[in-house]
Automatic annotation (TrEMBL):
<protein>
    <submittedName>
        <fullName>Retrovirus-related Pol polyprotein from transposon 17.6</fullName>
    </submittedName>
</protein>
<dbReference type="GO" id="GO:0071897">
    <property type="term" value="P:DNA biosynthetic process"/>
</dbReference>
<dbReference type="InterPro" id="IPR043502">
    <property type="entry name" value="DNA/RNA_pol_sf"/>
</dbReference>
Length: 132
């Protein structure tokens, strides 16, 4: 299961020959490292901190080509929002504000509209879910 991975990781200098890989019960490979290998991998990660996101809204965006949505009808679909509690409404507004500030989405004045509701996460938080 981990065959070939060891040599691939060695190529990038994050493991030494004394380290070993073993398959876990989930089918993924786990790494046991010697102390100097851990220092090497920490150093490598430290050199590239700028490419890792700091939170779930720090994902960046790439706008290489304008997107087109081909419609089958000229009739705009506009659905009414779902009723939510004042507490959930505040949470929805807060999360929308965060993704706007992160430039993940941008304001729109389209005739199209879809309702949003909150869905529980495993970590007991909530995330917005847009119904299409």
């Amino acid at each position: 299961m981990c065959e070939g991975l060891y040599d691939k990781v060695l190529e990038f200098g994050t493991l030494n020959r004394g380290d070993w890989l073993s398959p876990s019960s989930s089918g993924k490979c786990t790494v046991s490292m010697e102390e100097n290998s851990q220092c090497n991998s920490d150093s490598l990660l430290g050199n590239f901190t700028h490419i890792f996101s700091e939170d779930s809204y720090d994902v960046g965006c790439i706008r290489l080509e304008p997107q087109k949505v081909v419609l089958t009808s000229e009739l705009a679909v506009s659905l009414l929002p779902y009723r939510t509690s004042p507490q959930n409404n505040i949470e929805i507004e807060t999360q929308i504000k965060r993704v706007l500030e992160a430039n993940i989405i941008k304001p729109s004045h389209s005739l199209y509209a879809a309702p949003v509701t909150l869905v529980k996460r495993k970590d007991e938080g909530r995330r917005p879910l847009k119904k299409h």
